[in-house]
Design goal:
This protein is mainly α. It has 16 helices and no strands.
Length: about 325
């Protein structure tokens, strides 16, 4: 009987080890497949960006270039006017992100902590903005910024309206009031995060003599760093990659990297006597690499903090 039980236990242990091995192999294969799908575009971009025209014409060259060159990066740098376009992109991405953090954190805190009659309706409107495509409201927004006025005050004082087209105002002004790109999502993240914070923190501040504003700035705000990191990274990446809004308002007024990248093939064929794909394609992908390199650097620097902030924020709450 004892020997039978020992054999049975040994067999059960062997079955469990086999199952763990099968599950481990399955999940390893699954994660490798997902990782390949995610990394494949980056590998293709950077391997194509260093190919020479001879490599493009060589059918045996697939991944590793036989005659790698960095001239494509130099050409793409000039075609997209990288320094100027980078400056314009950073102005929008950094400026709007900073304003989003200030406005959305304050609005989210108000929804999380203050009780007022219209709170449910207003928050429903905020959530509603998440499902409204920006293309739907682009026409009235364009007219608004093309003939900008505030209750007729500007026209009364200056004798006419302001034309804010071809300026950064259409991006910065909405962010000041929490109405920028994806601001509804950012308000939701902050609201969920503040709701998860202990009320005792605020009560301790009130006992120490802090008012509402001081309690928020001195106690709640420093403890909301994870939410700030999450919103900051999301806002920065979305405005860095935005094409629709930037093309609508900026035109040729200091175009951004994303706008230049959309038209890089036209810049190449217009500025160069060489228009065949053996030259255009590597230069185009070199331009793509130049545009996404800052985002990769930001991710490598902040990915640990971003993962931690996602875990601690209310993004799934």
């Amino acid at each position: 009987m004892i020997k039978f039980l020992e054999k049975r236990i040994t067999k059960t242990a062997a079955v469990k080890r086999s199952k763990r091995l099968v599950y481990g192999l399955f999940f390893a294969a699954l994660f490798c497949g997902i990782g390949y799908i995610l990394v494949y575009p980056l590998i293709y971009i950077f391997t194509t960006a260093v190919k020479s025209p001879a490599d493009m014409l060589d059918m045996t060259t697939v991944w590793i270039a036989k005659s790698p060159t960095l001239q494509n990066f130099a050409d793409a740098w000039g075609y997209i006017d990288y320094p100027g376009a980078l400056s314009s992109t950073l102005t929008i991405a950094v400026g709007v992100t900073a304003l989003n953090l200030a406005a959305c954190s304050t609005i989210g805190y108000g929804f999380a902590r203050f009780r007022f009659r219209e709170r449910g309706l207003l928050f429903a409107l905020v959530v509603f903005t998440l499902i409204v495509p920006p293309q739907v409201i682009i026409l009235p927004q364009f007219i608004l910024y093309r003939n900008f006025d505030v209750l007729g005050i500007i026209k009364l004082m200056l004798g006419g309206t302001l034309n804010l087209k071809s300026t950064y105002a259409p991006f910065l002004l909405p962010a000041i009031f929490g109405q920028g790109l994806k601001s509804g999502l950012f308000i939701y993240i902050f609201r969920q995060f503040y709701r998860g914070m202990p009320v005792e923190l605020e009560e301790a501040g009130y006992i120490d003599g802090c008012g509402t504003v001081r309690t928020y700035l001195r106690i709640m705000l420093p403890n909301a760093i994870p939410a700030f990191i999450t919103v900051g990274l999301l806002s920065f990446v979305w405005h860095w990659n935005d094409v629709f809004g930037q093309a609508q308002y900026l035109d040729e007024f200091r175009p951004t990297l994303s706008m230049k990248l959309v038209g890089i093939v036209g810049y190449i064929t217009k500025s160069s006597v060489v228009s065949d794909l053996s030259y255009v394609t590597p230069t185009k992908y070199a331009g793509v690499a130049l545009v996404i390199l800052p985002l990769i650097a930001v991710y490598l620097i902040g990915q640990r903090f971003f993962v931690q902030s996602i875990e601690r924020s209310g993004i799934v709450g």
